[in-house]
Amino acid sequence: MKKYIKYITSISFAIGLIISCDDIVEENISDDSIVPIAPLNRTEHQVDSIQFRWNSIEGADEYRLQVNNEATTAIILDTLVVNTIFDYKINPGTYSWRVRAENFAYVSPYSFSNQFVITSSDDLSEQKVNLVSPSNNQQLNDVSQLIFTWDELSIATAYNIRISEVTTSGETVVFDNDGKAINENSITITDTELASDGEYKWAVQAINDDSSTIFFSRTFFVDTQKPVVPSLLEPITDQTVDKEQPILFKWSFTSEDMEMISSTIQIAKDEGFTDVEDTISDVPTEVEYIFEAAGTFFWRVRGIDIAGNVGEYSEPRQVIVN
């Protein structure tokens, strides 16, 4: 039985559905200029990772960054970046870089190429540790085994890691390597004090015999709580609807973080949901649906939060299709 499904995320999105593609106008950025901020032209850096920065352009959706190896004339990086900052691990050598703004319809000219030199050094004091995983502000629902990874620094001989719980009263260290050298660029932690839900910060420092970096940090969140069971709003129990006519299914969560919860709605031919007609996932709190056959159907909804916690299904509600 073929069905037509339309998801409604918000009033503004619903209004947007009636606007044709011809009415969508991208801002013309073809005459805008990108100004490189760092690294500047003809500068020298004793680092393993370089940070590229440039000005933002109004109307740009993303930026194309290119890095060229001057010795081989090869483009070693050609990537699209949403922000105006990009960190890149790089070997010693002479390079040039340029960047341009892009949106769906237009591109700006490339900036002038800036040349820079990466030199070798045993001094870690100006180096940066690039943290990889967990990503910044990542939501986690299982901390029984956590793997922390970061990019290796070639002149580092070991690393220190520190994990702190962040509360309104400050930060409390809940794990560190206690002077035991970490020789790899990752560590698996299975015995931590991350049992309570909340905000945490992890930080890594690179060291060698003569120097060290500062601690570089990221935040992550532990959330093990399932979303609450949603309240079904529309249609009401035993409401009669016509086949081949749109019907709006609507529900709500009694939670302050509704925007962090997506929903799964199931429609079945029986109250026990052994004969599921349709399962629609990753929707907000409304779905417009069309039945193409008459009969009695049942529907229920559950929530899934951004940490991956899956809530319980609501009690089913019956709808009659004529």
What would you note in describing this structure?
This protein is mainly beta and 322 residues long. It has 1 helix and 25 strands. It has a 5-stranded mixed beta sheet, with no helix packed on it. It has a 5-stranded mixed beta sheet with strand order 11-17-16-13-14, with no helix packed on it. It has a 5-stranded mixed beta sheet with strand order 19-25-24-21-22, with no helix packed on it. The longest helix is centred in the N-terminal third of the chain and has 7 residues. The chain is flat.
Q: Span from first to last CA?
A: 15 Å
- What is the helix fraction of residues, given as a range? under 10%
Beta-strand residue fraction? over 45%
Helical/strand content category: mainly beta
The average pLDDT value, as a whole number, equals: 89
User: What is the approximate shape?
Assistant: flat
Biggest beta sheet attributes: 5 strands, mixed
Query: What low-confidence regions span 5 or more consecutive residues with pLDDT below 50?
Result: 4-23
Reading side by side through the largest sheet, how are the strands ordered? Answer: 3-9-8-5-6
Give the SSE order as H and E letters: EHEEEEEEEEEEEEEEEEEEEEEEEE
The number of helices is: 1
Q: Calculate Rg over CA atoms.
A: 27 Å
DSSP, total strands: 25
